[in-house]
Amino acid sequence: MTLIDGPFAMPLAALAAVLLDRLFGEVRRFHPLVGFGTLAAAIEKRLNRRTIAGGVLGWALAVLPWVALALVLRPLAPFAVDVLLLYFSLGARSLCEHAEAVARPLREGRLDEARQRVGWIVSRDTAALDESGVAKAGVESVLENGNDAIFGALFWFALLGGPGALLFRLANTLDAMWGYRTERYNLYGRWAARVDDALNWLPARLTALSYALLGRWRDALACWRTQAPGWESPNAGPVMAAGAGSLGVQCGGAAIYHGREEIRPPLGCGPAPVAADLGRAITLIRRSLWLWLAVLFLIGALHA
Fold first, then answer.
1. Is the pLDDT assigned to residue 304 strictly greater than 80?
2. Where are the alpha helices (DSSP H) in the chain?
3. Which pTM does this prediction carry?
């Protein structure tokens, strides 16, 4: 028995995938998720008759063949397949790069550029945001996407190996594409949204716990307990409330979506975020990632 087929195979594969993501980031050309998005758009165009059944069929056709292929290939080279699948499922470096691309012009007083950059990673209208509004949008996006782009994939990888990480990532991508309450997607995208909620339920709470442990834990746990239930998303609420509380900043509040102002519940406690808090959010994500890897190695040691 070697390290890559013993009790440390899973944490070593996770570490290898994280290091690949740290070194190379997302694939610049021919990224599998880009191809998957093109396929999913074609399936939706053909099957979307604004019914739930059509959405279930579209989801199955988009996701299940790739997960089945991963399950077939994995026994041929388990360690290599797991590393590659988790690497393609992670977006840690990309998330940090996007956040830094907002923080840098914000620190340097280039507000128009910061507004444009944050508009690439959030769905709200950003044209009229002031410095605090840009920082708030960036911090919220970093905290929420820490779960979607990193920890959710790691959780399902720990349970089901590379195919589990792939299942999570593809399901999360379809939720981002179809999970809207618009006339076009309200019924068709409902299954994609519900599956993503189910797959994210436990990872989101473990992510929130990670954020709490690595910052102002008393505030983080209090914000999680009192504020998360008021948030519309059952998974984003705990993640962002605990993250904002851990950082000691106040998020939530008014935001404009598609020309309409929405008053969202408060998240966290303390002053409104500034440019420096984006850097602190990135640091929290990175420390949480190393905490998760340490836990995976601890699990391997216990098995050994």
1. no
2. 9-24, 32-47, 52-73, 78-89, 92-107, 111-119, 131-146, 152-178, 190-213, 217-227, 236-247, 275-303
3. 0.94
